[in-house]
Amino acid sequence: MTMEKQIIRLRGQQSEMIVEIGEIAEVLYWGESISGYPKGAALALKRPVPYGRLDNDVPVSLHPELARGVFGSPALEGHRNGQDWAPAFTIKSISHQSGSLIIESHDSIAGLALTVNLDLDSNDVVQLKQTLTNTGEGEYLVNRLANTLPIPERANELLTYYGRWVKEFQQVRQTLSQGGYQQENRRGRTSHEHYPALIAGTKGFGECDGDVWGFHFAWSGNHRMRVDVKADGRRVVQAEAIYLPGEISLQPGESLVTPVLYASHSGAGLNSMSQQFHGHVRESILAPQISEKPRPIHLNTWEGIYFDHDPAYIKEMATESAKMGVERFIIDDGWFKGRNGDKAALGDWYLDEAKYPQGLEGIVSHVNQLGMEFGLWFEPEMINKDSDLYRNHPDWLLAVGGYDQPTGRNQYAIDLQNEDAFAYLLERLDHFLSRYNIAYIKWDMNREIVQPAHRGRAAGNNQVTRYYELVEQIRERHPEVEIESCAAGGGRIDFEVLKRTHRFWTSDNNDALERQQIQRGFSYFFPPEVMGSHIGARHCHSTRRTHDIRFRGLTALFGHMGIELDPVKEGAEEKVGFERYIKLHKTYRSLLHSGKSVRIPVDDHDGQLAKAVISEDGNEALVMVAQLSMPTNSLSGVLRIPGLDADKAYTISVIDHPDNFHEGLVNQQPAWTKQPTVLTGEWCQKIGLAMPILDAESAVLIRLAAE
């Protein structure tokens, strides 16, 4: 019996989704909220039926099906020994309350049941996931199970991501007219190359204008994202985990749950969209530690000492770190048995007694006595063949037997589906966290996955879920320990990881110039308090470029700040600089980690980036203008700051600038940069301030305080 058609309205603060429920579920509208639902609404969106095609209108449902004449990409591809490969699900019941809709469907012929969970929260963020259950006889092999959402025909431009190691979160735009777009990631982790997100919008959409629909797929393994333009002009976005051949087999009664597709609409451009995602992350994803205490300033030893560990010297590093205001001291790679380079010892998670003959207790105690938390680096999922672990357990490799799998970073992956291997890693992590006062783990994952197999069968999907389980079990045993997700830098950054961790290492690249773009790309979906942003050494290890402390300090300011260097070897002038920016970050940390993030459009868009964080009450703002390259023109235009309270008067002052800001570079900087100036928020938004002239690779920090 088919359900009578009914209309369900899911409403957020600024947007709404109108869903028609009948035999199937179709999203009729997704955009800005409307005040009512007029009597003629049922007729207003009823489509014509063109000649020369199927004789009836074919809706694109939340679960598109070939069996109903949807000739694009179906949501489900699978079969039961060659049968039941074209199911047509019919809705049998729904549950609707507030912003949540649960749709139960089944196909009695194919022996399948489907549950669709659709939510729209108060931050205007949509969550969509599906559960497929085998209700028939015999196993059902699933090749694909995709989440699908429509976007309107006026969405004719895409912003998508690309990147690589040390150059993550790069963005590119393209027209969406015919055909469509598809990206695939088969690297076994979220990946540097294809971060699982995209943004669709009206042509020319910007930070402050245009209709935009942002999508983030919360999955830490192989994925596919696509946007299809049908021949009739309708558009759909799909996101799915990529299942390797034969990987997903449902026995009778078993279910498969998709990862969550997150999405959000804004009628006021990208900044509003980002603030909606940030609000959702802060309220629904982040662990309590992130909001309940200030994010500690880090010092990580990696770029300071690499594998050269001397306990006495490390204590000196900790002492100098504390003097500069560091609050968390982390020993990176090189502390465990036989680890003198990156070709050996991964998997042998025992303290290297040759390097640490007195154990770690003395260092941990020293760090704690200095008022700092202690952190330690692990890479639990990886193994070197030159290790006792591999020599004793060669069968623990995540690999297809008989093949000579290529290494990545001189290492291999451990099969987390092997119960003995999983138990060993859990015991080793638990040992260190129980024995020592470790407040923080830097959890790394430095290679891509090739031929993931468990007992010969494809197991890429299950490897990811077992990683989640390993982190969850550590969190259950040690709930106060914070965990950073690092994968050769930014290779595993997504909402699903963030549900289990507290921070991302955004990139292995600490070059301030490159970080400006990397951190900007990151900001579209993630708030600054989870973005690891460190001040590196003057000479960057990854790009060989040099920057002064002011540019490095301001670039690291707008995130979860840290330092990545050897503080013992740094000169007095550099140390003074580190102290200055650590103190500056602490002064404004509560604002930076709770306010509204705004990316500011600039007139010199080829040479500058600008951003702000504005307090929720509109009483305070910090603005950074970064000059990335030589100014395009002799003047740099006008700085207009969106998001301020139009009715408030703000005192505007420059609180940090390059050494040569007022002399040498220009005859005269704008008058407002020399003395505090009072302007209204309306003036700052609509008319603005004459932009100062800056050298390439420098920045200025401006504060606005309501009177």
Q: Low-confidence runs (pLDDT<50, min 5 residues)?
A: none
- Global mean pLDDT: 97
Instruction: Label the overall shape.
Output: globular
In which range does the helix fraction lie? 10-25%
Assembly annotation: single chain
Structural class: alpha+beta
Summed up, the helix count is: 14
* β-sheet strand percentage: 25-35%
How does the major sheet shape up?
A: 10 strands, antiparallel
Tally of DSSP β-strands = 40
Task: Give the N-terminus to C-terminus distance in angstroms.
Answer: 66 Å
Rg of Cα set = 27 Å
EC number: 3.2.1.22
Pfam family, one: Glyco_hydro_36N
Organism: Photobacterium pectinilyticum
Enzyme class: hydrolase
Fold and architecture overview:
- By secondary structure, the chain is an alpha+beta fold.
- The strands form 9 sheets. Strands 5, 6, 7, 8, 11, 12, 14, 15, 19 and 20 form a 10-stranded antiparallel β-sheet that branches.
Keywords for this entry:
14 helices; eight-stranded parallel beta barrel; ten-stranded antiparallel sheet; Glyco_hydro_36_C; single chain; 707 residues; EC 3.2.1.22; glycosidase; alpha+beta; Alpha-glycosidase_related; alpha-galactosidase activity; 40 strands; 31% strand
